[in-house]
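User: structure tokens for this one?
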Amino acid sequence: MSKRTMGILSECIPIFTMLQDESRQQILMLLFDNQQMTVSEITEKLELSRPAVSHHLKLLLDANLVSVKKNGKERIYSLKLEKAIEQLKQLLSSMESDIRYNA
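Assistant:
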């Protein structure tokens, strides 16, 4: 693989790390289906404690896969996948270029 591809792959590691966990996958699916949810609403749908849901949401927030807005005391989460999708498209494109170049 090219240095460019390896660099893009390195940038995508946080995405892959977040997606490897089943609980985070479930949270992302809930947010996809519901557009936005509070920690309490997510906790009601999953077999996880509120602190566990909050922890997963913080990790997803740090990886730029979700966004949060405050409404009074509540924090409302929603998907924020545009950057991740763009990074993954760049990775795929670079890998395809590497394959064509080496063919």
